[in-house]
Specification:
The structure is a single chain. The chain is of the alpha/beta class and 375 residues long. It folds into 2 domains: 169 residues, Rossmann fold (3-Layer(aba) Sandwich), CATH 3.40.50.1970; 189 residues, Dehydroquinate synthase-like - alpha domain (Dehydroquinate synthase-like, alpha domain). It is built from 16 helices and 8 strands. Strand 6 and strand 7 form a beta hairpin. Helix 7 packs antiparallel against helix 8, helix 11 packs antiparallel against helix 12 and helix 11 crosses helix 15. The longest helix has 21 residues. The relative contact order is 0.11.
Length: 375
């Protein structure tokens, strides 16, 4: 199959990059809807920086701060209506994956009428509001992808809007905004980025370009594991700014990877752990990733060896142990849950996107092995 690489997002990085590049907002429009969660944008200082940058350019703005974790379809429609009512001609997304995913859906829905039953169809008019993305976590990479992941209660899972229309026009990467993150959030988002890099290399759409980025991301993420373990033991108060910058860089690289490749069975399986058991998305991926990589090694040992080598792991067991050291005690799952979740995962497009054939029975067993303690 042919390989393509497309990334229209301008990436601006560095401390105080928003203030130093305030003029870039002016190219997006004259009125902005800032989309955030309830707290993180304020605590990190990102909201203040954005507001001051917009004001310096004479840009009107309003703040929509109703986005919660794992944003819903109604939230996307509500925010889109807020954007239209204010007369916004671009969106500024500030936060982790949830605000960015919600903002991207809002940007699409504010520009055109799409009924809920057509929201995930992929068939849209060529219209969406421009987006500026400001990540305050290092994990999702949503600032450089064309995906908006929303909780879909009708399907009892999370479902993706995928369209080039919602690639952010610009992403501002300032690691200062991640410095207030607690240990658990830092680990969960780090492992989400790790999962993106690993799954990107296990995708049928992987290419030389995406593999180079995935390997660089894997190397960078693994380099922070010792510092994260020291933090977990209470020997330090957190990560240094340089380490935060490393993670933000690695997260964005991994986002660039999945913008080209998409994700595979790990994400499909993780969605049920989030939807039914309320496990954080990154943690859900981490709980499954080691066992899935061991499963993949049985089918394609050369590809998995390349993945492990990039991160400095000698074998799948060492990889799994490294994740478990960070994640701590695992959640449990019963056979009935494993069966249900595997059937739901099998319905997603992620499964066909993987180079490793994965059946419903395979996934059922991975759930049981990963969550009930069997390597």
């Amino acid at each position: 199959m042919s390989k393509n690489y497309y990334l229209p997002t301008r990436v601006v990085s560095g401390i105080d990059c928003i203030r130093e590049n305030a003029g870039r907002f002016a190219a997006l429009g004259k009125a902005a809807l800032i989309v955030t969660g309830g707290r993180s944008a304020k605590i990190t200082g990102a909201l203040q920086d954005v507001e001051e940058a917009l004001a310096s350019q004479g840009i009107r703005y309003a703040v929509y701060d109703k986005v919660t974790a794992n944003p819903t379809i109604p939230c996307a429609y509500d925010g889109a209506e807020a954007a239209r009512a204010f007369g916004a001609d671009f969106i500024v997304a500030i936060g982790g994956g949830s605000p960015m995913d919600a903002a991207k859906a809002m940007a699409l829905l504010a520009a055109q009428t799409i009924s809920p039953d057509k929201l995930f169809s992929g068939s849209y008019l060529p219209e969406a509001l421009p987006i500026a993305a400001v990540p305050t976590t290092a994990g999702t990479g949503s600032e450089v992808t064309q995906y908006s992941i929303l909780t879909n209660d009708a399907a009892e899972t999370k479902t993706s809007i995928a369209t080039e229309l919602i690639f952010p026009a610009i992403a501002f990467l300032d690691a200062r905004y991640t410095e207030s993150l607690p240990f658990e959030t830092t680990v969960n988002t780090t492992i989400d980025a790790l999962s993106h890099a690993v799954e990107g290399m296990l995708s049928v759409r992987a290419s030389t370009f995406s593999d180079l980025q995935a390997k660089r991301s894997l190397h960078a993420i693994a380099s922070t594991f010792p510092a994260l373990l020291i933090w977990k033991r209470g020997e330090t108060q957190g990560l240094s700014r340089a380490q935060r910058e490393t993670l933000l860089f690695a997260s964005t690289l991994a986002g660039m990877v999945i913008a080209q490749t998409g994700t595979t069975a790990v994400h499909a399986m993780g969605y049920s752990l989030t939807y039914f058991k309320h496990v954080d998305h990154g943690r859900a991926n981490g709980l499954l990733l080691g066992r899935y990589l061991a499963f993949a090694a049985e089918k394609n040992p050369e590809r998995v060896a390349s993945i492990l080598s990039a991160g400095g792991f000698s074998n799948p067991d060492v990889f799994t142990d490294s994740l478990e050291n960070l994640l701590g005690k695992r959640e449990s799952i019963d056979p009935e849950e494993a069966e249900k979740y595997a059937k739901l995962a099998a319905k997603t497009k992620n499964i066909a996107n993987g180079i490793i054939p994965t059946t419903t029975e395979d996934m059922r067993q991975i759930y049981l092995d990963a969550l009930n303690g069997n390597k």
